[in-house]
Amino acid sequence: MSIFEAKMNRNLVFFYIFLWVLTASSCDNKVEINAPYNEIPIVYGMIDVSEDQHYIRIEKAFQNSDNLSSGQITQIPDSLYFDTLVVKLYDANNPASFVTLERYDGAKYPKDSGTFSTLRNTLYTTLTLPTITGALRLEIFNPKSGKTYTATANIIRGGDFTSFGSNRNIAINESPSRVIQYVFNKGENAYMYDMFIRLYYKEMNASDTTISVDKTLDFYLAKGYLADNNFPYRNNSSGFNKIPWIEFLRFLPKAIKRDDSKVRRVTNLTYSAYGGSRDFADLQELSKPVVGFVQRNTEYSNIKLNGKQIGIGIFTSRNYLYEEQALIDSSQFFIAKYGPNFIY
To answer: What is the pTM of this model?
Structure first.
């Protein structure tokens, strides 16, 4: 599971449902197949204050019926979504500051093919956020049941890249001594970081280069790196080894498939980092596969009803940092040398 995906993968939703059903029935050998319906919201929201638009995915756990199988139910959109919800975001410290999210059923973010229905992808969205003094509170009200579900997330803000020099040029070559210089300060409330180099390139038809697609490729330096006393983060600190650019060059042919019907050209490169919250780190830890006989509690969620955990999923925050660089000619030459179908 990617730590910082903005939209929740449908397989992850299915995984949460499976875990909930498994855990709920693990302590009692008597399973009532068609017990009275218990409303269970499934929420995935990750607020990034640097984004222009914010989305929260809200679904519901379904229950089998006497005449429909699980596979059939997953193909019925109404079994996956609530009919009517009122979704709001509040400044956790000022209830007077809030925004109401709009329901979005459009095709801008279509679902991938798979187990669940692709006829609809209901999200709740807003272009603005309330004035935030430190944390956001999510409220989900279902008029049909009268229930209000809540979650609170500390907002991650700030952080910056530093010490890259005035010309901002990158010198990539095959020398093991030419290392990736990676320096930044963490943001407020950030608990961990994924750190990576993001390569931007244009993929063109070899027969007609006016037909092209813009693509990116991420080369990770670290995942889930704890934002502790090692920050400001430096990749030559005792907590992290230096990474030579030659490792990035060797990564290119492994990550990009050769295709002689295409030609590719580098357009940009950024030093990038995603900051994650403590609650997302807890969710990651509890969701890891268990090796051994003792089942770990995998039900972590911060979705609550009347102060008690009731939902599945998470409402949290992230932030994205990046520093654009200028690739000098020799660097583009080496990328073209190692990158499949790249031209210089």
So the answer is: 0.73
